[in-house]
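Input record, target 12 of the design panel.
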């Protein structure tokens, strides 16, 4: 065994093929391990729900919305609830006084509850080695309506062929396990189902789609002025400032071995501060996959790093304007009918070499900037001229047709479905 592992490590160090062989062998070993030591040992608990969000990195998104709806409706008392986090110790406070069990993401305990839980509720793929039992129910919420191509749809666009093919396999395997795909729109249904290689022309697949709205957006229809004031106070934002949320996505080609995805700031913060301060503050929200830490000390009082703030909906609440690029955040933010600016300074490279897009950016409900520039003037112009016009209205009709809370309806369908 030792000699074999040595050979594999040497192969991985010298050839891309060797690395790929090693990864696939690792996946196979973990699948066998899961079946023998977890799936075969632990029976399904009909009253257990396993929640996780962003690979255990956050308490957020639709899994959080569905969990909190369980509490509001009183149904949480009927279930044993497990949440998986990378750092469970960080999340003691939100669950204090509850009967929720916190486990470390991807730990042995986590695998045990994968095997035991009747329901899996997640906004990402489940670990590649985990296999759902026939009597278990996998609820897939994903984490946003996509503009950039994802999953199996990236077959001709990403420039990492071996890793891309492997990732496609992960999506297909996950797609075969999904029991419920939660969807906010027909567009989302079509694209996310395609990303998971789910054939919507098959009746049994189409029935898996719950096109009822997006649970994570419930808060956008129910928050109050008191909620806004509370978040501003929490973040130490002066009440008289205009708030701009800058939320870019990650780039496939900005990656460091042993570190993960990084991000090269596309905005010149010094120019932005000169052009906007003292009227504005900026909330910078990095994508959850970005690992590099940003040092914004010199911009204290103007720039707030909110990358570690779990619930982005609360950031939407306090933001007067959104600046983003290809991130799915703008689909959700559009529910607020507030101005958005799309800073796509690397649009041609992104579209042609990294990810293609599901539709042309000219359809977006706001100005699109395709070059590196100081955008402070564009922000001020948008603030001065913005109206919720027919173009913006048509955007919401297509991508956000369910204007209201939906978590209760989603939960009732999932739980009743399990009984019948």
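The sequence produced for target 12 reads:
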């Amino acid at each position: 065994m030792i000699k074999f592992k040595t050979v594999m490590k040497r192969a991985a160090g010298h050839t891309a093929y060797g690395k790929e062989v090693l990864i696939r062998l690792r996946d196979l070993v973990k699948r066998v391990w899961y079946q023998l030591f977890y799936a075969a040992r632990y029976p399904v608990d009909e009253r257990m729900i396993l929640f996780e969000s962003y690979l255990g990195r956050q308490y957020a998104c639709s899994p959080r919305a569905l969990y909190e709806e369980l509490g509001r409706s009183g149904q949480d008392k009927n279930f044993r609830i497990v949440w998986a986090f990378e750092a469970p110790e960080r999340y003691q406070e939100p669950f204090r006084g509850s009967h929720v069990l916190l486990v470390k993401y991807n730990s042995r305990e986590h695998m045990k509850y994968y095997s035991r839980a009747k329901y899996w509720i997640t906004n990402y793929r489940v670990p590649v080695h985990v296999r759902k039992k026939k009597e278990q129910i996998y609820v897939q919420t994903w984490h946003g309506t996509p503009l950039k191509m994802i999953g199996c749809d990236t077959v001709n666009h990403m420039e990492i062929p071996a890793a891309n093919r492997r990732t496609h396999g992960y999506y297909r395997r996950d797609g075969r396990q999904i029991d419920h795909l939660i969807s906010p729109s027909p567009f989302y249904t079509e694209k996310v189902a395609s990303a998971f290689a789910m054939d919507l022309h098959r009746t049994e697949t189409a029935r898996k789609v719950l096109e009822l709205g997006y649970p994570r957006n419930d808060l956008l229809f129910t928050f109050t002025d008191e909620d806004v004031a509370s978040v501003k106070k929490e973040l130490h934002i002066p009440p008289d400032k205009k708030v701009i949320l800058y939320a870019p996505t990650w780039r496939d080609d900005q990656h460091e071995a042993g570190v993960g995805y990084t991000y090269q700031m596309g905005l010149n913060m010094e120019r932005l501060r000169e052009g906007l301060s003292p009227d504005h503050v900026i909330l910078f929200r990095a994508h959850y996959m970005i690992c590099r830490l940003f040092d914004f000390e010199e911009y204290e009082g103007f720039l707030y790093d909110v990358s570690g703030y779990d619930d982005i909906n609360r950031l939407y609440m306090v933001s007067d304007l959104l600046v983003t690029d290809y991130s799915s955040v703008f689909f959700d933010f559009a529910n607020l009918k507030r101005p958005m600016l799309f800073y796509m300074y690397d649009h041609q490279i992104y579209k042609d070499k990294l990810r293609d897009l599901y539709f042309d950016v000219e359809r977006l409900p706001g100005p699109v900037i395709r070059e590196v520039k100081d955008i402070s003037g564009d922000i001020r112009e948008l603030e001065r001229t913005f109206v919720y016009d027919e173009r913006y209205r048509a955007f919401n009709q297509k991508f956000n047709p369910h204007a209201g809370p939906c978590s209760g309806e989603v939960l009732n369908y999932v739980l009743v479905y399990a009984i019948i």
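The chain has 15 helices and 15 strands.
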